[in-house]
Model the fold of this input.
Amino acid sequence: MIFRRSFLTGAAAATLSMPTVLRAHTEEPFVLADEFQPREVRVREQHAPGQILVFPRSFFLYYVFDSERAVRYGVGVGKAGLAFKGSAIVERKAEWPSWRPTNDMIRRNPDRYAQFADGVPGGPGNPLGARALYLYRDGRDTYYRIHGTTEPWSIGQSVSNGCIRMLNEHVIQLYEQVPVGTPVTVL
Done:
């Protein structure tokens, strides 16, 4: 366990030492606002190591990795009325996941989503980005995910259909740290 803590602290320090600059389908580089850069923070001791906490109103996800310590990431969250709330468990993880919009998404916005009704294979153009953590409640898929994004400018906004979006490089870091079975609480 000492090795894991040392590794996580070292990984967090390396992550926190450089700003996130991306090229997202444009020639203009995208620079994530400083407030949404990953950083190690203190959390209340009531939050046990090994859990994920999401605070949609402030656009932050916390991965608690040690007693009273977490890595905080900026996230994009669901639009009003579409966001996931409550508790879930990461029951599945996928690298470069495929994606299909839900029937509700297609019904709400057919002009945008009907073209994807047969699904989109995994890869850099896929809306779920580089990694996805699938959230389940009572053994059932909630259809909500913590995932990467092809729209990095959406971090810090309520724009998704309910999922929790992260920059691809950040969701890759989280994916590597979080095992299946990790509890997630969206407050």
